[in-house]
Amino acid sequence: MSTLELKELSHPSGEVIKIAAGKTLDLKSQGSVTMPTGSVLQVVHGTTSTQVDTTSSSYVDTGLTATITPSSTSSKILAIYSPSIYQAVSGTALTIQLVRGSTSIAVHGYALFASGAVVISQVAATHLDSPATTSATTYKIQMKTESSKSITANYDDGAGDTHSTITLMEIQG
To answer: Which CATH code for domain 36-171?
Structure first.
C-alpha cells in the first residue's frame, strides 16, 4: 500500500474529488475534521411514555429529557420537542419550558380548549441554543398549568400510544 502525504488537496472550480467505488475516505481516524458551518454533527433522541400528572402552577418535569455532548464550544444545539399533553377540563392554559441544565431557555404558552371534557394534544416546539460548552449537556421539558386545572403528560389510556419526544441536533458553528 502506498501513502500519499499532502499539505492541501484542491481541485479546479467545477470539478469534484471522487473516491473509487468500494473504497472509503476515512478522515476521522486521521485527526480532526472540520465540517462546513451549518452541518449536522450528531443527533440524540429521547422519548418517554411515563405518565406525569399535575395541577401545579409551578413547573414540574414531564420526564422528557436528552443529553448531548457538543464537540465544540461554537456548536449550536437545535432542540425539537413534542410533549403529549392531556387535559381533563376544557379551557386549561398550559405552559411548557425547555431547560438546559437548570436554566430555562425557551418558554411556550398554550391554551387547550375543547367543547367536551377531554383533549390530547401533541404540542410541538423548536429552539436553537448556543450552550458554549463541550461538556455533557442535559435538556428537559417541564410543564405547568394555570388555575389549578389538571394536565397530564403522556396520558396512559391503556393502549400505550401516547408518548413525548425530544431530538437534539448539534450544528457546526
So the answer is: 2.60.120.1340
